[in-house]
Amino acid sequence: MVQALQFARGRLSRAAQRLRGKPDTTLSLSAALAAFMPPPTELSPTAPAAPAFHAETGNRPASATEPPTHRYRAIWLSDIHLGTPGCQATYLLDFLKHNESDVLYLVGDIIDGWQLRRGWYWPQSHNDVVQKLLRKARKGTEVIYVPGNHDEVARQFDGMAFGDITVREDAIHVTATGRRLWVVHGDLFDGVVQHARWLAYLGDSLYTMILALNRHFNRIRTRLGFEYWSISQFLKHQVKNAVSYINSFEHAMVDEARRRGCDGVVCGHIHKAEIREVDGQLYCNDGDWVESLSALVETMEGELKIVYWTTLLDPPEPVGRRRRRATEMAL
């Protein structure tokens, strides 16, 4: 165990040096993943699971000046898009700090391989997100990574573990009330991604431009004391064709969940957080971390809720202090 941690720290140190140096535009997504994770090991079906937190312990005790940490049975996150300027890593880090769970599902598009192939972008805050996820896994949270279309290179590692994070093509989650939920990113049910790849890339480029405008807009809102608000999400929900596409996507997802003998589905992909009944099946979308800043959570009693994290509980650290802390952790 000590040797594994030393190996991981060495990888993190070398990755930090690379990211602070000259950008490497030829670095592949699989190489980026390998920079942060130890060599994969086959999962053993008989291997004991990492110790989970007890439901009876409740929230962790917080100091008088620190906001409380919420405790959930499960948390679903997707469409983080690390490696893009649109990723709201600061808000996500704040969310991860103040929310714990027995199981954490990463439901695809965690790292944006499409954008990284166009040009290297990886600030310290994106490093911090990866380190935070690995740290949660080491401390007992069961972390399950279900890749999406932007990080599809990770699908080749189905059934393997990286730094205590399990990679799965899809997963089945059983709630405290006994409902079976099929967990999948959802891109395989997107006709544009599957049959018109060029159109998906074009749409992604236009979407990136809107997110850049959205980022500058919200920087001004923050200075004026307002909460985060997404221009791109507002525009998308006003376009009738987009609304029709979302409805078709939801029906396709619940139909497949029913065929698999499940009571509902949890997915991401379309960046629209929602919980509702569709054709008698439970449809849950956990949203994203470039527009809605949302997550799906299951309480200890089995209730499913959408949590929006549009306000920071902790102010971001100064860049110099954050870099020193990351370097100390890597040594």
TrEMBL record:
The keyword DNA damage appears for this protein: no
Top-level taxon of the source organism:
Bacteria
A GO molecular function for this record? metal ion binding
Which Gene Ontology CC terms are recorded?
Answer: membrane
Q: Which InterPro entries match?
A: Calcineurin-like_PHP (IPR004843), LpxH-like (IPR043461), Metallo-depent_PP-like (IPR029052)
* UniProt region (Disordered), positions on chain: 44-67
Q: Where is the Calcineurin-like phosphoesterase domain?
A: 75-272
Gene3D superfamilies, A to Z: 3.60.21.10
Q: Keywords in UniProt for this one?
A: Cell inner membrane, Cell membrane, Manganese, Membrane, Metal-binding
Check the record and name the Pfam families matching this protein: Metallophos
- Which GO biological process categories is it annotated with? lipid A biosynthetic process
- Its recorded name reads UDP-2,3-diacylglucosamine diphosphatase
The species this protein was found in: Cupriavidus campinensis
Tell me the organism's taxonomic lineage. Bacteria, Pseudomonadati, Pseudomonadota, Betaproteobacteria, Burkholderiales
